[in-house]
Amino acid sequence: MRSFVCLLCLLLMGLVLFAQPQHPLTFLKKNEVTQLRKNIALYPLLNTSFQEVKNQVDKYVGKDVDVPFPKDAAGGYTHDKHKSNYTLMFNSGLLYNITGEAKYATLVKNMLFKYAKLNPTLGKHPQATSATPGHLFWQALNDANWMVYAGMAYDLIYEACLPKEKKIIEDGAFKPEVDYFIKDMPVWFDLLHNHAVWACAGVGMIGIATNNQEYIDLALYGSKKDKKSGFIAQMDHLFSADGYYTEGPYYLRYAILPYMLFATALQHKDPTLNIFAHRDSILHKALITCLQQTNTNGVFFPINDAIKDKDYTTNELVTAISISSTEYGIEDGLLTIAKKQNRVMLNSGGAAIAKEIAARNDISPYFPYKTIESVDGDSGTTAGVSILRNGKNENLSSLIFKYTTHGMSHGHFDKLNINLFDDGNEILTDYGSARFIGIEQKWGGRYLPENVAYAAQTIAHNTLVADETSHFKGDGEVGEKYHSEKLFSDVSNPEIQVVAAKEVNAYKDIRMQRNEYMLELPSGKKLLIDVFHAFSANKHQYDLPFQFNGQFIKASFPYQPNTQNLETLGKANGYQFLWKEASAKVKDTLAQFTFLNGKSYYTISSLIQDSAAIYFTRSGANDPNFNLRHEPALIIRKNGSNQTFVNVIEIHGKYDAVNEFSTDAYSSVKKINIIRNDDKMTIVEVVMAAQKIWIAQTNEDFNPDNLHYFSNDTLKFQWKGPYQVNVHKE
Asked: Quick check: is 15 in a domain?
């Protein structure tokens, strides 16, 4: 009988052991490791990526790594040390699996033991300034970063830990952090927001690493496990169906990392979830959309609170591209970027990329940019952003027309805003965010007060401001309730691309409608024709800014420069930060302003009917700590009830500073006429040196099948649909 009982116990123990998942499970699976070792010796890019990681980690092997008590804000020693620590642990865990050398597992264990002592003692971070303070860091978001990487690191060395060591780490290092998120900050954990994406990924990653299904379920379905929040809800509601991320491409760049990392862990843990196929492969769409929303130099378009220095060589995109190549296959466009990144992740996707780069000599140096129109919001019914492009490679021009939702807590008050990039340069600019990330001396690396006071305000953008008041009176909670509406677009002809949108909620009694035409003329010249209506029953002051990047060359109108005494353009809503450097009064004219950027000239030609004021401004007023960049703008001011702004932005000429040659430096726009302008239609004539352009557009009826007519003594138009563009040589 005793022998039977012993045999039964052994069988049951075997079943339990068999049921336990085999680690690692998060970033790598054990069956990947053998092939990865072989590939490191075969493919140079994978080998150099491996050596880079090894060199970084080997500096700390056998040494006592500092795990300090937290005290500093972003950019301070303790902040940066905990940040580098979680990267070190993850990389050391990778090396343990690839090399099999116990010293790398020992390094991770020793660091996690220190965190197991530290974390239970922590409360609110001493430098916390937000409603969501962290323990290790000044904000909980950074704690979530730590959880994602520390969870993967633990999983990577799990089989090197004794049972008592596992208990110390799981109870000391991880449980206090998970409890803090779930029990103390469930509202934050359940948000639909990039912070909560990281939080869910952090809790879920620890759940997979520690075989804790409760943690995994909380991560997937929210603190109440009601599926109204959690990781799946984040995938369902923060992306539109085509992959646009509601906070903008800069924040998608940040959020794509926890999305991809946790999805990888889930795919390894439970392939039946089929997480990478969720919502028609939404993570793949998000990655491609994110990359399409970059400039030719890889910098993300500065929509909302964007740091303008971030580009697609950042670690988040290196990781996302390696994972995408594992799950969705190798793509030529991603190979282009991977080659520029010049490093890959140490996984099967990174190996596949390295193999392709080693084998092929036909990888294009240019990402395949194209015109894209993205909807915004999970339903994607009306709001969105259009990126109109013409030209190619280094001569690409990109017009960004933003008619999105507000963008949650990182949104700006910039309905119907435009930006222009050309020849790799930002021409019509967006300030992005006012923040020196990672620089402790500048407000602890946090967002500066000027971020809300100036960068997010409407006047800092290229869209209409009424009565020196920002859209929605600068109230983000109100702005979040509404979105702009796309009226129509046509991008079927690369030589004539058009998109129109309206905004009716930014001001209570003003309806704004903006039509953007991106034209490439037979001569190859590129034009943007911008028709901006403001309709109201009441009189208002309307300001239309053009934030430009370049050197002032010439203005066609006389202006009064303020060379001795400067005053601000206004007193509030961002106007208090603008120096009024020059001003002009203009009447019944074509006002033209030319500036130089790089090797090209750019001219803004503005139709002035009746009278208007024009201001040259520069940011930096009321800024004693010099937090703002000093950037110029041209602002056109009109007064009245209904007003229409017609502007032609012309890309022309070349300047060769080396050989001292300048060609086509003058604008070829000679005249702009409005032939008809009322509620039903607007017809604009642009007279150029070699041709005339007529634009006929409807302002109410956007049915693509309806016919429209116009005639006067000299012109006759008939067109189908909401617009018509005719170009005639003189």
From this structure: no
Tokens of 118: 């530290």
Q: Which entry of 410, 412, 471, 540 is annotated as an active-site residue?
A: 410
8-state DSSP, 446: S
pLDDT at 19: 55
Residue 108 domain flag: yes
Give pLDDT < 50 ranges for the chain. Answer: 1, 4-18
Residues 458 and 508 in one domain: yes
- What angle, rounded to 10 degrees, do the helices at 77-99 and 102-118 form? 150
Q: What is the pLDDT of residues 160-199, one digit of tens each?
A: 999 999 999 999 999 999 999 999 999 999 999 999 999 9
Q: Do 178 and 206 form a contact (C-beta atoms < 8 A)?
A: yes
- Annotated active-site residue 251? The verdict is yes
Q: Which two tokens stand for residue 681?
A: 């239609």
Domain presence at residue 557: yes
Give residue 223's pLDDT: 96
pTM: predicted TM-score of the whole model, two decimal places: 0.93
Domain boundary among 315, 349, 368: 368
Q: Is 463 exposed, middle or buried (0-12, 13-18, 19+ CB in 10 A)?
A: buried
| Candidate list 60, 251, 447, 723, residue with the active-site label | 251
- Report the mean per-residue pLDDT for the chain: 94
DSSP string covering 559-621: -EE-SS---BS-SSTTGGGEEEEEEEEEEEEEEEEEEEETTEEEEEEEEEEEEEEEEEEEE-T
What pLDDT score does 440 carry? 87
Q: Is position 176 within any domain?
A: yes
Looking at the fold, whether 396 and 461 belong to one and the same domain comes out as: yes
What is the DSSP annotation of 105-143? HHHHHHHHHHHHHHGGG--S-TT--SSS--SSSSSHHHH
Q: Which range marks the domain in which residue 290 is found? A: 238-368
Q: Which of these three, 353, 368, 383, is where a domain ends?
A: 368
What is the count of structural domains for the chain?
A: 3
Q: Is 410 a catalytic residue?
A: yes
